Amino acid sequence: xxxKEDIIKAQKEWAEGIIKMGKISNDRLSxxxxxxxxxxxxxxxxxxxLFKPTKAxxxxxxxxxxxxxxxxxxxxxxKCEEDEGFxxxxxxxxxxxxxxxxxxxxxGLAMGNYTFENDDTIIKVEYSFGYIKVNESVKIIxxxxxxxxxx
Length: 151
Fold this sequence. Notes:
Elements: H1 4-23, H2 28-42, E1 50-52, H3 65-73, E2 93-104, E3 107-117, E4 122-134, E5 137-146
Helix pairs in contact: 1-2, 2-3
C-alpha cells in the first residue's frame, strides 16, 4: 500500500534529481545517462504517464520518455524545439509544499506549490502529481505543473 511518507520520499528524490542534473550538466554523457535512469526510476514510462511541464507552450504534453528528456535537458537531440532544458538552470534548492496528499491503496495524488531556487531566480510553481506503487517502487503517473495565474 502506498503511504503519504512514500510520496514525500519520492518528492525529495525527484527534487534531488533535478538539482543533480544542473550540477553535472557540463558532462553531457553523464547527464544523459543520469536523466535516463532518473526518468526510469521516478516516472512510470514503462506503462503510461501524463506529463504537462511548467515551461511548455507549443508542445504542451510530454507523455513519453524522449519528450520528457527533451524538456529536462534539451540538447542536440531535443524532441521539442521550444525546450531549453529546465533542469539546466542549475537549481540549488527545490522545495515541495503539499496542499494535500490523497491515498487510494497503491495510488496517490499530491497537489501544492514547489519552489525552484538558484543564484538568480526563485520560481513558485503549482503542481499536481499522481503516483503509483509498482513492485515496491513509487512512480509518477501524472505530472502537471504551471506558473500561478497573474493578472
